[in-house]
Amino acid sequence: MQYLYLASRSPRRRELLQQAGIPFRLIDIEVDESVLEDEAAADYVERLARDKARAGVASQGEAAQSAPVLAADTTVAEGTHILGKPETPAEAVDMLMHLSGREHTVYTGIAMALGDRLESRVVATRVCFASFRRADAERYVATGEPMDKAGAYGIQGFGGVLVERIEGSYSNVVGLPVYETATLAAEFGVACWQTETL
Ligand SMILES: Cc1cn([C@H]2C[C@H](O)[C@@H](COP(=O)(O)OP(=O)(O)OP(=O)(O)O)O2)c(=O)[nH]c1=O
């Protein structure tokens, strides 16, 4: 059976891979997620996805030779600002107010590695936020949803209420662009739409 290793702790990425019918086993890795000075958001997510995939291969040793490792990283960018995961509820409210009534871009880097082979892509989606008041942002943050999410919102949850429109891939905003991931997986010999699970 064709499958891959998913180097991710994100439940959203698991669901999106399941949606594509790509069987996977989970592996746990740790990488430094700091942004480099003057690093553009697209470069940042691609670098991190590549680091995570490489870390996945290193952690698997011999076993990783049998199936490719997939990793991803998602971030939100508004102009030159990179908005990662908020560290406090107050920071989440500030991030949301920064995005209110504006357009921003969500970037996801995806990388796949097998032995010495490493390939990656970056997918961008434009997201247009409605204008809302600080009291609304505070009420949304009080739901607890924004805290583990880049840009302090989840389009797939309560945060969908804040989104007027998007241009590009929806699954990319959630954390794993399904079309591009399936294409990359196919290049490594792992097909989508498999009905058997591991
Ligand atoms: C903008 C947005 C982000 N997010 C999430 C996707 C990512 O999981 C998270 C960004 O953090 P990431 O660092 O990309 O991923 P992660 O730490 O959750 O998982 P791992 O590194 O182990 O793979 O924000 C949403 O769920 N919905 C959204 O609308």
Automatic annotation (TrEMBL):
Its EC number is 3.6.1.9. Coiled coil: none annotated. Keywords: Cytoplasm, Hydrolase, Nucleotide metabolism. It catalyses: dTTP + H2O = dTMP + diphosphate + H(+); UTP + H2O = UMP + diphosphate + H(+). GO terms for biological process: nucleotide metabolic process. Its cofactor is a divalent metal cation. The active site is at residue 73. It is found in: Cytoplasm. NCBIfam families: maf. Belongs to the Maf family. YhdE subfamily. HAMAP family: Maf (MF_00528). This is dTTP/UTP pyrophosphatase. It comes from Parendozoicomonas haliclonae. The lineage of its organism: Bacteria, Pseudomonadati, Pseudomonadota, Gammaproteobacteria, Oceanospirillales.
